[in-house]
Specification:
heterodimer, A: alpha/beta, Rossmann fold, 6-stranded mixed β-sheet, 4-stranded antiparallel β-sheet, 7 helices, 24% strand, B: mainly alpha, 11 helices, 0% strand, binds adenosine-5'-triphosphate, binds magnesium ion
């Protein structure tokens, strides 16, 4: 067991009263596991990820990583954002080296590591390009490499492919699985797409309407790469979609 | 994997060789020639109207363009009888004043603006003072400053005041405009407060600093005129204009105005060019 979330609760103070985003969320993530979190819009998925990343604090509950209580951001957790959040004034290489610069890694090691990561995410030839010269898919490759450069134990991804077109998205899913298999990282991946979750995850965590906790967990022990056209894929997809639809109350 | 093979081709090939590039180039050239022709035409119309008006009204206050251009040329070639200075000397004097006032404003406004934008404490301390001083037109300070600090330093301080506030506001605005998600990203990568300041705040504020410089220099040229009118020591284009007005040499007054126009315009163009270069170097387009 590596990431442990226990009875997490998050309430945002409002002008009057409070908005309870998350209520009683408990989850253990095993080392090397690929977890997808699914849930209706506004149910608190981003909030959970931000709390794990240390960008936000919970109202109550306990989160620990390998037994260590999480207090603030740390290089043991890497985050990948839907909006990419690359530094526009830095080249691809310099974006990837950002975390290593902060940790005062010697220049030579820094270069070697960034070169390896550039190869890992398939960005050879674009080392000196700036973010505005890259396509969405390439930007997110930089985002992934940048997060990996700190050698985190766990990768937190908030709808990382949400801004990409369908084709690029499918390709990036395959690429991510390849990277995941090569680096053996633990991944917590948030998505709106049931299809994406079934394609990627070892386990799918489905969250309910606010105040949200876990409604259902699906284990997917299938081998990869998974065949979207297969019967079992389609069936599971249908099942989860039905579950989600039931949860969203008609307005 | 498809992506990797694309990746190994050099970047230049993919981004720059497009069949449409050739026609794009000629398009741009045609556009450029068009702009030049229109500019020449518009200036000719302006000079024509000026000429017509000066003939029509026939007043010494509006000399015709040919006389003015003659006076302009003459002012550069021949030293003035009373002051012994050529226009060139005046240009140098005024430029040095603008440069000093601007430099002073820059070294103070940039760090102060960055820190004010970044730190709530510093901001709440300095904001009342800044807000009290901001609405005062820089020129309003000029008479006092010229008496108090003399004709040499006084004008520089007037320019300093003129440049300082717009530059400061622009920088504070720049720091405030940073996307919060960039700060989040930096924090997840291990950035502490100091790192954030150096590696995120400063670089993302550069475009706003550049804009501040461009606006500030424009204001600097306006302030130097006022300061020189009110009694700077040692010449300057403003003093030239004022003096020539007093002795009724309106052709030379207009020559001075044209010099101001050229100076202001070339400063703006130059800082615009530097701005674009810096942005390009930083990869910000
Ligand atoms: N800083 C905040 N202050 C107040 N309310 C907030 C704040 N951040 C988020 N919320 C609210 O908390 C709830 C959960 O937000 P969150 O962004 O985590 O949802 P999400 O599941 O990521 O949604 P989406 O699928 O649209 O990305 C929302 O109702 C949101 O309006
Ligand atoms: Mg979200």
């Amino acid at each position: 067991m590596m990431l442990s979330i226990e009875k997490l609760r998050k309430a945002f103070p409002l002008e009057e009263g409070e908005l309870v985003a998350i209520e009683d969320f408990t989850l253990d993530v095993k080392k090397g596991e690929f977890i997808c979190i699914l849930g209706p819009s506004g149910c608190g998925k981003t909030t959970i990820l931000r709390i794990i990343a240390g960008l936000d604090t919970q109202t109550s509950g306990k989160i620990s990583l390998d037994g260590k209580i999480i207090k603030g951001p740390g290089s043991d957790r890497g985050m990948v954002f839907q909006e990419f959040a690359l530094f526009p004034w830095r080249s691809v290489r310099k974006n990837i080296e950002f975390g290593m610069e902060l940790r005062k890694v010697p220049v030579k090691t820094r270069h070697e590591t960034s070169q390896k990561l550039i190869e890992l995410v398939g960005l050879e030839g674009f080392e000196d390009a700036h973010p505005h010269e890259l396509s969405g898919g390439m930007k997110q490759r930089v985002g992934i490499a940048r997060a990996l450069a700190n050698e985190p134990d766990i990768l937190l991804m908030d709808e990382p492919f949400g801004a990409l077109d369908a084709q690029t998205r499918n390709m990036m899913q395959k690429e991510l699985l390849r990277i995941w298999e090569e680096t053996k990282k633990t991944v917590v991946f948030i998505t709106h797409s049931v299809d994406e979750a079934v394609f990627l995850a070892d386990r799918i965590v489905v969250m309910g309407e606010r105040p949200s906790s876990i409604t259902e967990i699906y284990d997917i022990p299938w081998e990869r790469p998974r065949e979207r056209a297969s019967m079992e894929f389609a069936n599971l997809r249908k099942e989860i979609l039905a579950k989600l639809e039931m949860m969203v109350r008609p307005e | 994997m498809a992506m990797i093979t694309i990746g190994t081709i050099k970047r230049g090939l993919i981004t720059f060789i497009r069949p449409s590039d050739v026609s794009l180039k000629t398009d741009r050239r045609i556009q450029f020639v068009k702009t030049i022709i229109i500019t020449i035409f518009s200036l000719s119309v302006f000079i024509g109207v000026w000429w017509g008006l000066s003939l029509l009204i026939d007043t010494p206050f509006l000399p015709p363009p040919d006389i003015v251009f003659e006076a302009l040329l003459d002012s550069f070639i021949r030293p003035d009888i009373t002051t012994g200075r050529t226009m060139w000397d005046n240009v140098v004097t005024s430029s040095i004043r603008v440069a000093w006032g601007f430099a002073l404003a820059f070294v103070l406004a940039v760090p102060l603006g960055l820190v004010m934008g970044f730190s709530k404490t510093v901001e709440s301390f300095s904001k009342p003072v800044v807000e009290v001083f901001r609405p005062i037109a820089p020129i309003a300070w000029a008479p006092l400053l010229l008496i108090a600090m003399g004709g040499k330093v006084g004008p520089i301080i007037v320019i300093f005041i003129g440049v300082f506030f717009p530059l400061l506001s622009n920088i504070i605005f720049g720091v405030r405009s940073i996307q919060p998600i960039l700060m989040d990203a930096a924090r997840t990568l291990g950035a502490k407060r100091g790192d954030m300041f150096i590696k995120v705040i400063i670089p993302s504020t550069v475009p706003y600093i550049m804009t501040g410089i461009r606006i500030g220099l424009g204001i600097g040229w306006m302030c130097v005129v006022a300061a020189e009118f009110l009694g700077a020591v040692g010449g300057g284009v403003g003093q030239y204009v004022q003096f020539k007005t007093e002795v009724n040499r309106f052709d030379q007054v207009f020559a001075g105005l044209i010099v101001f126009s050229i100076l202001g315009l070339s400063t703006t163009e130059l800082s615009g060019w530097v701005e674009r270069r810096v942005m390009k170097r930083m990869g910000l387009k």
